Amino acid sequence: MLTIPFIRANSEITIQGLTKKHVANASEIVHQLIAMDDQRKSLLQQAESALEISNAAAKEIGSLMQSGQKELAEVKRAETAALKGTIREKEEAAKAAEKQMLDLLVTLPNLPHSSVPKGKTAEENEVILTWGSLPNMQVDAQPHWDLIKKYDIIDFDLGNKITGAGFPVYKGKGARLQRALINFFLDEAIKVGYYEIQPPILINEDSGFGTGQLPDKEGQMYVTKEEGLFLIPTAEVPITNLYRDVIVNEKELPIKNVGHTPCFRREAGSWGAHVRGLNRLHQFDKIEIVQIHKPETSYQALEEMSLHVQGLLQKLNLHYRVLRLCGGDMGFASALTYDMEVWSGAQNRWLEVSSVSNFETFQANRLKLRTKVDGKSILCHTLNGSALALPRIVAALLENNQGPDGIKIPEILVPYTGFTHIN
RNA sequence: AGAGGGGUGUCCGAGUGGUUUAAGGAGCACGCUUGGAAAGCGUGUGUAGGUCUCAAGCUUACCGAGGGUUCGAAUCCCUUCCCCUCUACCA
Question: Percent of chain A beyond pLDDT 90?
Answer without folding.
Answer: 68
